[in-house]
């Protein structure tokens, strides 16, 4: 009798069963693997759903998701709160049921328009729980994985919130503008304060002259009154002649003309100084006009040099008259700042020399101030016109002078730059000579 192991058919049958079992094991292992992947995907989907639900719930803007026919598929809590309707009662309805009748014609074309391009800031009204609610609505297409349009997404923000935000923004802008104006005026007054000593000295000379002349005129008036009283009382010709010699009326009459002329000259000088001062300190709300830049430069230079306690050599190359266009008071402030900065920069320098020049350059006028100070560090040049930036020690500069000056010159259609030269720094200002931008 032969061994079954020697039967080839039996061996093939066992191999087949082993192969089937192996395949079944592999299939089972694949099923287990796929089951694990499915569970992981389900967990991921659930997490994503919770994530998107939390985002929708936290949105303050209303959200409406529609299919290609305009039927609502999903809304968020903000819309539920606005309409006082539950999402379950809205899903499946056409989104136009939420739109006020006056805007139905406007939204009917949304689906057609969104095929071409998204809609932005479209104003319409939804039916709110307490009446129509104005919204600024954005409408975007919703595409499937093949890029085909399957619906649209509507996101709206109540215009009341936008109007409130615009109002707050306008208020903040107005406050910033007011603060800027106050800073400009504050810096102008700071510049003016630095000149008070020089101006006081300038005023003191003509006022003292006028004051002295008026005292003399007062004495002369008393003598003349005494003489005229004698005439009225009927004094004789001889008595009047003696009184005329005693009161020295002949000399008095000769002096009257010079006293009056001197007093008028002093008063005119005071008037001139006061006009320059008023021009500099005014808010300059008037229209721009043509003015003499040479006079502005000389006035600013005169005041600053008078106030300076250090001997400063001044080299001028300024024409007798040079016309520019703008607010002379504002440009006066700029010139004062530039000259004062140059004077301050030379403190401690062995050579203290200012070089001022002005000239006509085409349709512009050029003003330049050179000093013999240490110059400006290269890393600071680009920041010189930044607000509150200053290279002066703490307490000696606000950091606003150059910033405000740059703004004034730019508003005039000009240009202001500061560069280094061989012996220090140079400020260069261009202004239009006539009306219009330079």
Automatic annotation (TrEMBL):
It catalyses: ATP + protein L-histidine = ADP + protein N-phospho-L-histidine. Residues 159-189 form a coiled coil. It comes from the Bacteria. Pfam families: HATPase_c, HisKA, PAS. The keyword Ligase does not apply. Keywords: ATP-binding, Coiled coil, Kinase, Nucleotide-binding, Phosphoprotein, Transferase, Two-component regulatory system. This is histidine kinase. It comes from Neptuniibacter caesariensis.
């Amino acid at each position: 009798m032969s061994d079954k192991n020697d039967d080839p058919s039996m061996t093939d049958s066992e191999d087949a069963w082993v192969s089937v079992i192996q395949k079944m094991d592999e299939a089972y292992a694949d099923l287990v693997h796929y089951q694990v992947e499915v569970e992981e995907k389900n967990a991921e989907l659930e997490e994503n759903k919770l994530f998107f639900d939390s985002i929708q719930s936290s949105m303050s803007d209303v959200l409406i998701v529609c299919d290609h026919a305009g039927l609502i598929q999903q809304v968020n809590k903000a819309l539920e709160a606005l309409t006082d309707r539950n999402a379950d009662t809205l899903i499946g309805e056409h989104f136009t049921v939420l739109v006020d009748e006056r805007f139905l014609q406007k939204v009917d074309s949304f689906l057609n328009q969104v095929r071409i391009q998204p809609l932005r800031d479209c104003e319409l009204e939804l039916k709110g729980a307490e009446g129509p609610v104005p919204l600024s609505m954005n409408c975007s297409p919703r595409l499937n994985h093949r890029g085909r349009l399957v619906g649209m997404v509507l996101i709206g923000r109540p215009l009341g919130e936008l109007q409130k935000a615009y109002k707050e923004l306008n208020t903040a802008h107005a406050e910033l503008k007011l603060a800027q104006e106050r800073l400009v005026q504050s810096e102008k007054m700071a510049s003016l304060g630095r000149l008070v000593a020089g101006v006081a000295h300038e005023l003191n000379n003509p006022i003292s002259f006028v004051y002295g002349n008026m005292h003399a005129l007062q004495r002369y008036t008393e003598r003349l009154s005494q003489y005229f009283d004698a005439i009225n009382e009927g004094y004789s010709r001889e008595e009047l002649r003696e009184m005329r010699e005693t009161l020295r009326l002949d000399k008095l009459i000769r002096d009257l003309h010079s006293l009056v002329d001197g007093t008028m000259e002093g008063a005119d000088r005071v008037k001139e100084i006061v006009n320059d001062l008023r021009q500099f300190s005014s808010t300059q709300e008037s229209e721009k006009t043509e003015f003499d830049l040479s006079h502005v430069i000389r006035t600013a230079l005169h005041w600053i040099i008078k106030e300076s306690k250090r001997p400063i050599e001044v080299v001028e190359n300024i024409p007798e008259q040079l016309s520019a266009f703008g607010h002379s008071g504002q440009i006066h402030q700029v010139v004062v700042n530039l000259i004062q900065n140059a004077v301050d920069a030379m403190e401690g320098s062995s050579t203290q020399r200012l070089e001022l020049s002005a000239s006509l350059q085409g349709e512009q006028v050029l003003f330049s101030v050179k000093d013999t100070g240490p110059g400006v560090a290269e890393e600071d040049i680009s920041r010189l016109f930044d607000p509150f930036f200053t290279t002066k020690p703490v307490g000696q500069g606000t950091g606003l002078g150059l910033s405000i000056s740059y703004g004034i010159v730019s508003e005039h259609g000009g240009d202001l730059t500061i560069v280094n030269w061989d012996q220090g720094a140079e400020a260069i200002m261009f202004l239009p000579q006539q009306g219009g931008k330079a």
